[in-house]
Write a structure and sequence with these properties.
heterodimer, A: about 725 residues, mainly beta, Immunoglobulin-like, Methylamine Dehydrogenase, Chain H, six-stranded antiparallel sheet, six-stranded mixed sheet, B: about 625 residues, 8 helices
């Protein structure tokens, strides 16, 4: 019995001792996310007071590293734990006292708030504030691996990539990665919407493409993923993981898919359909071409201002506009460019509020310098051909700053600069849209020529009419008399004595006509010998008539079939294919081996079998029967097409150009039409007159590319 | 500044009485765009989170009051997901800054009309002498001379900041009184805004709040504030949850718009710890708070041939705003109270300096850069900024023969582990080079390469990429063609798994442009991946035919066939664009996509999808 009692007492003592050794406070220390350990993680803690009474405790947090030993030792304020579980907050534990900090970690912690790479054990101990007895504890182990994030390599930030191809995404792995650690990557690509930045798009948008668990630092966009869209930009990012732990995230870059043909690097610009060009003209720095192709047009008539509508419809304001016979001949894009406030335009007639469509011929394209609206639209320089609001055009002419067109019904239209009435408008205001220049007697015009500030037109009877500036008597004294010469003429005046003409030409301040009898008539400024009256001749009051067979040079002038006027020189093409030139020769534009002025027509050596001639500012162009183009004179802007800038006095063939059927010469550029309809242009491009979609001032910034003939880019419809 | 304000007040007081005929734009103008787009597909795309069906609406109306645009921007999308930040955005913008460009355009236009007055240029100098007689006998000539003199005065102002010359411009009739007042008003945006202050402080983060930018003269004042994130609880993956976050940023600068400017910036952002349920708190990441101070310097010398840009920024980050505060023996009490510092707070800094020499005369550009971002530097305004790096870089670019020849070489050295937080320091040396030859009418040649060497105690990692490409663009008759051959190599070897890709790609495309625009493109490649026992051949053929009916209906057919090894993909489809002129443009794209992989049939799929967009601009 005694032995039994003794055993019960011993067991009771043992049980009490055992109970006394059990923790009074249960501690749960929450483990931070993988690869993260901060001092504050020691206080993400839950305590459960298992006793039935409140106890006063304080907490001790200790972090140790496998190699460096104790890293930090902290102690909290004393708190009272009520029975049961308690989720502690920071406020309850303050102030936290740092007992010890490993010196190596102090600066790191102040600068980064984190511990460096290592294997850590973090423990929290709950001690009685009264007895300093440990009432409970909890620990966790945490491995920290600090690495640099993945670094994106390709495609580079902002790169354009071919959309059809499958780009290879490349990045650098995070460093350092200890041996044995397997790194996996997640590549995420999102579309960028609206005004989103790459980072913002990554934060908000669902993945357009996401691949996880990638083992290598590159990925070719898979074949079974949806191709990228060319109307979007995409943001991409790489995240690196070691197991579940995020090692780092790259920056967010973006790329832009484009159709692959745009990324080949050497300007692969598709050339639009070749046009059936039927007429050409080149002004000082602008160009005109007439296309005989059928081009569909449609326009919503109520969107037009009345004046443009009427012009477009070729109707007088009083005309009755039935809804079945109206033809819209205006290009919508041109209208949008030309008509300011199109939305405010008033409707013209309720019957016109519908779409009209018609196939039109003889569409006029214009491009180049548009300072005086001599080309098309409102922009100062038009670098690709744009459609003018005129069709059914059969002939064109371009002066320094004004343009002329003749429609198939024989009516003459003019637009551009009008400061001397060269558009036959007494307001002397520039005219931005083709405006009718009526024939004084209602005849049809068949040809027109434009100089710097004057205009000539030839009607169906062979009569020459002139208007505009007459300072240099470029309109002659026909009909006015010596004492009644006007400085400028704003109404077309008939030039007497030229009733049987078949061609006309205008220089800067001189004029030419070719009569049906093959006679060349020259008048106006003769300062450079244009009128064959010697150098520095005063403007001729009369004319110089160069008749076939008349000997003004050593050889008789042949039967002339065509004429051309440069700024201050003249060209005449004889039926036998010879070219005669006279006038200004300072750049060798008239005749080689002659002085600065060629006083009388002289046959240009080295040219034969020529079928057409054209004259620019200071150069001359000839088209040979074998469809090759020959140039002589000024070459400072690369007019010989050979890529150099050395002036040539002897005619030089433009290399690489054949099959040419028509030519035109401007102030410092040349147009040449190939038989297949391709229109080539070369020379100066300071106002976009080459129609290449660019504007390049060659005089200021040499560009070898512009020195060779290249097709005009007909971007318009 | 005082004078400026007084002048401004004078302008306001005078505005009502001022009658300015010349420049006054329409009082109110409306413009804008409206795009409604969407997609419906038979299945969700492979590797995509994007749903099979979705729609988006982008609406951007603008009302211009005396030329000052007041714009609105709305983006709504059905792709919005509860567990991501909001895609939908609404912003209203009052941007008088745009008026500056309008005035400059107007000024340029006026000055360009100077040649029209060449007839009076010679006598304009004698204006004072001849003014009276012209007024009597030839008032039209006098008018032209005065117009010429006015444009000459405008010409003298052309290169100046309009804001600095407002009085003069107003005198010359180029700026109306209302516009002059508007020019002094700040730019205000409300809604989803994207303030961009600097690379270290605030860049690319969207704020749902507002921003103000004011540039009176050479001064700059900016403020932005609002919520950057809404609270998101990811019960499926608690660490991916995020707290609600607020951000405020401000900057002040002077010298803005001049050769040298200095800007001071500050940012404060904070996660709202209470925005997620308390019960889950221990399982989530901790809420942060960041305070960043920064200074930027920008200087341009010698007609911008030399430019210098520098930035220094310091961040004070609290990595857990709920952690206990430090005791006063650790940090001064005022500092703790001012920034609400906690035991988890840390401070670090970052700087960058960029120096560039540009010589347009010789086509040369030399750029030097030095950059350091401390491992503890952090700004919520640039959260994914690469940290713990010291970088030096030099790069030289040269163009020759009118850009026919371009050359570029660069060297960059980087070092991480600036404070010894990593097991090993990685030193990277990166060499880059590029060569481009693009002679006119001859094939082009491009070569580029990057060689990167990362050295650490664990070994050396080498990553090399280089590419050689040549091609020719040509035209014969109605056909345009492009032929290109590209050889590329990308290789990584070292401590991480060795990977490599060598590829040679051949591209050929033809475009026939009349009467039907037809494009045929063929791309063939031989990619050789490291470790593959066989060389995979891949190729892609696309054929596109487009025809436009009546200038309003464009129809394209665009089948494409591609192969990668044994896997093949066929995409057949068409695209229609209907130009309804002032009513808008309708685009419809329909595709059927058939993918087959004999080696992994589980990946096979057939899908069709239709995309449509209706776009209006007015």
């Amino acid at each position: 019995m005694k032995r039994g009692l003794l055993l019960a007492v011993v067991l009771g003592i043992c049980m009490l001792d055992s109970i006394a050794q059990q923790p009074v406070v249960q501690v749960r220390l929450f483990r931070p996310p993988p690869n993260q350990l901060r001092q504050s993680d020691l206080w993400r803690i839950q305590l459960n007071n298992l006793s039935r009474e409140a106890v006063r405790v304080y907490l001790v947090g200790i972090v140790t590293e496998a190699q460096d030993g104790e890293v930090v030792n902290t102690r909290s304020a004393v708190i009272t734990l009520k029975p049961g579980p308690t989720q502690l907050t920071a406020n309850q534990l303050e102030p936290i006292k740092l007992i010890r900090v490993h010196p190596k970690y102090r600066e790191l912690y102040l600068r980064t708030g984190e511990v460096p790479s290592g294997n850590y054990t973090a423990c929290a101990y709950v001690r009685s504030a009264d007895t300093d007895e440990e009432l409970g504890s909890d620990c966790f182990e945490q491995s920290i691996q600090r690495t640099s994030p993945p670094i994106l390599v390709q495609p580079r930030d902002g790169d354009t990539i071919p959309s059809e191809s499958r780009p290879v995404f490349t990045w650098l792995p995070p460093t350092p990665i200890p041996p044995g650690v397997t790194v996996t990557y997640t590549l995420r690509i999102v579309e960028m919407l609206g005004r989103q930045t790459p980072f913002d798009a990554m934060l908000r948008n669902p993945a357009y493409f996401e691949r996880t668990d990638l083992r290598s630092a590159m990925l070719q966009y898979p074949l079974d993923a949806r191709p990228f869209r060319t109307d979007r930009s995409y943001a991409w990012k790489v995240s690196a993981y070691a197991g579940q732990a995020l090692l780092g995230e790259s920056e967010v870059w973006h790329f832009i898919p484009r159709p692959s043909k745009d990324t080949t690097g050497a300007a692969p610009k598709p050339i639009r359909p070749t046009r059936q060009i039927s007429a050409l003209a080149a002004g000082l720095a602008h160009s005109l071409a007439v296309s005989s192709s059928n081009i569909p047009r449609f326009v919503h008539l109520t969107a037009l201002k009345p004046e443009y509508l009427l012009a477009a419809l070729d109707l007088q304001p009083t005309s009755a506009m039935g809804d079945s016979a109206v033809l819209a001949m205006v290009n919508q894009r041109t209208l949008q460019r030309n008509i300011q406030g199109i939305k405010n335009a008033t409707s013209v007639g309720g019957t016109l509020s519908r779409l009209w469509t018609q196939y039109l011929k003889g569409n006029l394209f214009a491009w180049g310098d548009n300072h005086y609206r001599q080309a098309v639209g409102t922009e100062r320089a038009v670098s690709t051909p744009q459609v003018q609001t005129l069709n059914d055009v059969v002939a064109v002419a371009a002066g320094y700053w004004h343009s002329l067109a003749i429609t198939s019904d024989g009516r003459l239209w003019g637009w551009g600069r009008n400061d001397y009435g060269q558009l036959a408008d007494a307001s002397l205001q520039d005219i931005s849209q083709p405006r009718l220049i009526p024939h004084p007697t209602g005849k049809k015009f068949v040809a027109a020529a434009a100089g710097e500030r004057h205009t000539l037109a030839l009607d169906e009877d062979g009569v020459v009419w002139g208007w505009g500036c007459n300072f240099n008597r470029e309109l002659g004294s026909f009909g006015f008399g010596a004492d009644r010469d006007s400085a400028y003429v704003v109404i077309p005046k008939q030039l007497q004595g030229l009733e049987q003409s078949r061609a006309i030409a205008c220089g800067v301040a001189h004029s030419m006509a070719l009569t049906r009898a093959g006679t060349v008539v020259v008048w106006g400024s003769g300062y450079y010998g244009q009128t064959c009256q010697g150098p520095q001749a005063q403007p001729s009051k009369g004319t110089t008539i160069l008749k076939p067979g008349r000997t003004l040079s050593d050889e008789p002038l042949g039967d002339i079939i065509a004429i051309a006027a440069g700024d201050n020189h003249c060209l005449a093409l004889a039926r036998n294919g010879e070219v005669w030139a006279w006038g200004d020769n300072r750049s060798g534009q008239a005749h080689p081996d002659s002085g600065e002025v060629v006083q009388q027509p002289a046959k240009v050596p080295g040219l034969d079998d020529i079928i057409d001639v054209a004259a620019g500012c200071c150069f001359s162009v000839a088209l040979r029967r074998d469809s090759t183009v020959w140039v002589w004179g000024d070459n400072t802007l690369g007019l010989t097409g050979s890529g150099n800038r050395t002036s040539v006095q002897r005619p030089t063939r433009v290399p690489g150009l054949s099959g040419i059927v028509r030519i035109a010469a401007g102030g410092s550029h040349i147009l040449a039409l190939r038989a297949d309809g391709t229109l080539f242009a070369w020379g100066n491009n300071n106002a976009g007159q080459l129609g290449r979609g660019t504007v390049t001032d060659l005089a200021a910034q040499p560009d070898a590319a512009a020195l060779q003939p290249a097709p005009v880019l007909f971007g318009g419809p | 500044m005082y004078q400026r304000v007084v002048r401004w007040l004078l302008v306001i007081s005078a505005t009502g009485a001022q009658v300015v005929a010349q420049p006054s734009p329409p009082a109110i103008e409306f413009s804008g765009s409206n795009v409604l787009s969407g997609q419906t597909a038979s299945r969700q795309g492979s590797y995509q989170e994007q749903p099979a069906q979705f729609w988006r609406w982008e609406f951007e109306p603008t009302v211009q009051v005396y030329g000052i645009p007041l714009s609105f921007y709305v983006l709504l999308s059905s792709e919005q997901q509860e567990f991501r930040q909001n895609i939908n955005a609404i912003t209203s913008m009052f941007t008088p800054e745009r008026l500056r460009q309008r005035i400059l355009d107007r000024l340029t236009s006026e000055v360009q009309s100077l040649p029209e007055y060449s007839d009076v240029a010679d006598i304009a100098d004698r204006y004072a002498e001849i003014k009276d007689s012209l007024a009597q006998f030839n008032p039209a000539m006098l008018e032209r001379i005065e117009a010429y003199r006015r444009i000459k005065e405008l010409q003298a102002l052309k290169n100046a900041d309009p804001l600095e010359q407002l009085d003069k411009l107003r005198q010359l009739g180029l700026v109306s009184g209302i516009e002059q007042v508007m020019m002094y008003l700040p730019q205000v945006q409300v809604g989803m805004v994207y303030p961009n202050y600097s690379q270290y402080l605030l860049r690319g983060v969207a704020l749902n709040g507002g921003s103000v930018d004011w540039t009176p003269g050479t001064f700059l004042f900016s403020f932005a504030g609002g919520k950057t994130r809404r609270p998101i609880l990811r019960r499926d993956s608690l660490p991916l949850s995020n707290y609600e976050q607020e951000m405020y940023a401000a900057r002040f600068g002077f010298g803005h718009g001049t050769a040298t400017s200095v800007t001071f910036s500050a940012l404060s952002a904070r996660d709202e710890g209470a925005s997620l349920p308390d019960t889950l708190r221990p399982l989530q990441g901790s809420p942060y708070a960041t305070h960043v101070l920064g200074m930027q310097l920008s200087s341009a010398l010698w007609d911008r041939r030399i430019t210098l840009d520098g930035e220094i920024a310091a961040s004070l980050v609290t990595w857990d705003v709920r952690s206990p505060r430090p005791t006063e023996d650790q940090l001064p009490g005022w500092l703790v109270r001012m920034f609400d510092l906690r035991l988890s707070s840390s401070a670090d800094f970052a700087y960058s300096l960029r120096l560039a020499f540009v010589l347009p005369e010789t086509g040369s550009r030399l750029a030097l850069q030095s950059r350091m971002v401390g491992p503890g530097f952090f700004s919520y305004g640039a959260p994914l900024l690469r940290r713990d790096v010291l970088l030096h870089e030099v790069r030289l670019d040269q163009t020759l023969f009118s850009r026919v020849l371009t050359l570029g070489v660069g060297y960059r050295t980087e070092r991480d582990n600036l404070l010894g937080t990593k097991l090993s320091t990685t030193l990277s040396n990166i060499y880059t080079g590029s060569l481009g030859i693009a002679p006119r009418l001859l094939p082009y040649l491009r070569a580029s390469g990057t060689y990167s060497e990362q050295q650490s105690s664990f070994g050396t990692q080498i990553t090399a990429t280089w590419q050689l490409a040549t091609g020719y663009v040509y035209q014969f008759g109605m056909t345009g063609g492009v032929t290109a051959v590209t050889y590329g190599e990308q290789r990584t070897s070292g401590w991480s798994a060795a990977t490599g890709l060598r590829s040679i790609t051949f591209d050929q495309s033809f475009t026939f442009e009349f009467p039907l625009t037809v494009s045929l493109a063929v791309q063939a490649g031989l990619p050789m991946f490291e470790g593959d026992t066989i060389t995979r051949r891949n190729w892609l053929t696309t054929l596109t035919g487009t025809y436009t009916f009546w200038e309003m209906l464009s129809v394209s057919l665009m089948p494409s066939l591609a192969a990668d090894g044994d896997a093949t993909r066929f995409i057949g489809g068409f695209r229609i664009q209907l130009d309804l002129k002032q009513w808008g443009v309708l685009r419809i794209e329909a595709n059927t996509n058939r993918f087959r992989d004999p080696l992994n049939p589980a990946l096979n799929f057939d899908e069709t999808f239709l995309r449509a967009a209706f776009e209006q601009r007015w």
